[in-house]
Amino acid sequence: MSKKLLKSLNIAALALPAIASQASTIVDSVELGVRYTKYQEDSMSAADVSTGSLDRYDIDVMQFSFVAPLTDNIQLNLHYQEEDLSGASPWFTTKNADGEVVEVMSGATIEENRKDVIAQLTYAGSNFSVSGLVGISRENDYEANSFGTAVSYELPGKLTTIALAGDISFDKINPTPYEASNGTNTRVTDEEKESWSLHLSTSHVVNKSLIAQVGVGAINREGYLSDPYKLVNVPGTGLSGDSRPDTRFATTASGRIRYFIDSIDSAIHFDYRYYNDDWGINSHTFDIAEYFNIGYGFQLVPSLRYYTQSEAFFYENYYEQQRADGYYATDSRLSSFGAITLGLKVNWQTEHWFWTAGYQRYTSKNSYSLFDYSAESLSLVSFSMFTVGVDYKF
Amino acid sequence: MPIKLYRYQFSAMGSPCTLRFYHANEIQARGIYQSAVDEVKRLEDKYSRYLDSSLLSQINKNAGTQKTAIDAETASLLVYAEQAYQISDGLFDITTGVLRKVWDFKAAKIPSQQKIDNQLSLVDWSLVEWDQKSILLPQKGMEIDFGGIVKEYAADAVATLLKRFDIKHGVIDLGGDIHVIGPDIDGKSWQIGIRDPNYKKSKDKNPSKNLNKASAYIPMSSGGLASSGDYERNFIVNGKKYSHILNPKTGWPALGLSAVSIWSEQTIIAGTIATISMLKQDQGIAWLKELEIPFFAMDNKDKLYKS
After folding, report:
1. Is B48 domain-assigned?
2. Which of residues 125-144 of A touch B (CB under 8 A)?
3. Are B202 and B76 in the same domain?
4. Nearest Cα residue in chain B from A18
5. Does B287 fall in a domain?
6. pTM here?
7. CA distance B275 to chain A (A)
8. Inter-chain contact A208–B3, Cβ cutoff 8 Å?
9. Are residues B260 and B177 in the same domain?
């Protein structure tokens, strides 16, 4: 009987407004953000190019974000991004008079504009959250529609969180036609690509200075996975379209550590990711960043990333013989290489404002690879990236 | 950014208050602390019986004359008080406060039965006319107060607020009304001290030694903890202790238990149950056992009881 009375008291307590509102991870006010990024690839070396512009891509990126609580439990995130790209890109490889492999760059300067919109709704309960998102991406030659969902659950004790996320994307590829000398379009039209990914992770507060996360994932891509703007010199056939397998399945494993050092008021982030796919590409990514709080709301974040991958089983810098499977690609992104990114970021936070400015320098080389490589790829990219941004929280 | 334990002290509702929680950003932590103080002050401004401008004082001033309009929050506090009245068979009565006018704890004098009886005629929650929109205390001189409810409610309200800011490890202490959000960041329980009921007695003997001494530490990783006891305000006549916890039926202080601490999901419930068990006097311990609620109690012979 008494227990029943206690229950009636509990019901009355839970009806009290300041208690009744659900605990959640929903933002408590509207947040607006804007970022500008300038991405600039280094020019090709003249010695490596037989014809075409040496200049590579320059990309200007504007990003706008809007986050708002719709109710105590529901949050809306909107993200809009617009990219303007110009420059030339490696087209195919050939041999010069001395028998050295050289790169032919795409003739005219490419001008592209891409717009992306992502809308996400999140529902948060006291120990779980569920979210769904829709993404649309438009370019004159490419469109993608994607859908994603994620759930996370906090185990009792609140020290361990388990999260599962998945997405699916439907892409249409309609490259700008290229008229060969005989007047016909040598490029593909109306190609399609479908991809999905799944990611399962768990994060755990180990102790007051250590948080660890481990995750596994799978990515599947199907359809037209070649690069419609690249050509390959195929022995006995001549210039042909870049041709890759029409399925690609990858698995990933990752670990993250956040280590807090009270004495110098800073945090070390260490991330590692392993990737393996059935094109024969294995990769390791190591990320280390240190977040120094230097007072007055300022934060300094130096970072270092090392990436290395093995080459795709069909990749060659230049094909000397035909392949039985018919796959050809000289795209340097499929070669064995390593890359180092050095970064420095400054953040400044006040009650309502968050300012950020950062610089990154990315350098990739075949010789940085931990894996074997058959020949130097001429078109491995190096770039600089500069970002400034501000968020305002109402 | 590194997660750090932030600790803030402030004074509200006539008590020292402490807020402790882990956060990664000092500026945001400060903002959250400010919101917490604002929330406690909001409830104090609305429900303090010491502030003439409070809604509670308004209700009391209008006693015997006119209805006072109330908002949804006040109405749900009245619903809660009604439930507490019901489950305690009328022992938890928010109109009891007027008895303090005859029990002068500073003077340490037992009032005459005549005086007590006169005041008792103003104590009866069942006579109060109230609904979702208004309240009327039917007789002039009647008063309600949310002592034993509102400070506890404020602790719960601050807990809700901190959770909304995604805080997962923290302790709210509003003058001994505690609400704990999650364990300490290393996964271990917080050790919450409950005050020694003999604090005053021992202080006379050796003030420095027992000043902040807790009689027990209760490990907590969630929920509310509230205590009630005769150590807060009392006086002794002929070896008998008269506490400030007054029985609305007899008009006399409750005897039997000297201290009770209750654990419950919500601090407000812990506070209500602690008060009722004090008022139940000798039956208090048996009643707590029947409720199967976690408790820690001491009777007036310094004997300890645990659930």
Report:
1. no
2. 126
3. no
4. B157
5. yes
6. 0.63
7. 14
8. yes
9. yes
Range of the domain at B99: 55-136
CB contact under 8 A, B39 and A18: yes
Q: How many domains does chain B have?
A: 2
Contact B80 A16 (CB under 8 A): yes
Query: Scanning the structure block, which residue is given the tokens 């409720």?
Result: B291
Q: How far is CA A121 from the centre of its chain?
A: 21
Residue with the two structure tokens 């990739």: A364
Q: Which domains does chain A have, with CATH numbers?
A: 2-393 (2.40.160.40)
Where a domain ends, among B104, B136, B168? Answer: B136
Is this prediction's ipTM beyond 0.85? no
Cα–chain center distance at A264? 32
Identify all chain A residues contacting B3, using CB atoms and an 8 Å cutoff: 208, 260
Give yes or no for a contact between A35 and B174, defined as CB atoms under 8 angstroms apart.
Answer: no
Q: Please report whether residue B263 resides in a domain.
A: yes
From first to last of its 394 residues, chain A has per-residue pLDDT tens of 566 777 778 877 877 777 764 444 667 789 999 999 999 999 888 888 877 778 889 999 999 999 998 987 899 999 999 999 998 888 889 888 888 888 888 866 778 899 999 999 999 887 789 999 999 999 988 999 999 999 999 887 667 889 999 999 999 998 887 766 666 667 888 899 999 999 999 988 777 678 889 999 999 999 999 998 899 999 888 888 899 999 999 999 999 998 878 677 788 999 999 999 999 999 999 999 998 888 888 889 999 999 999 999 999 999 999 999 999 999 999 999 999 999 999 999 877 889 999 999 999 999 999 999 888 888 899 999 999 999 998 8
DSSP string, A317-375: SS-SS--TT--BB--GGGS-EEEEEEEEEEEEE-SSEEEEEEEEEEEEEGGG-SS--SS
B225 and B258 both lie in a single domain: yes
User: Is the domain of B167 the same as that of B285?
Assistant: yes
C-beta of residue A138 within 8 angstroms of C-beta of residue A114: yes
Q: In what helix (H) or strand (E) does residue A198 lie, and over which residues does it extend?
A: strand A191-207
SS3 of B154, please?
helix
Q: Let me know whether B189 and B297 are in one domain.
A: yes
B28 lies in the same domain as B167: yes
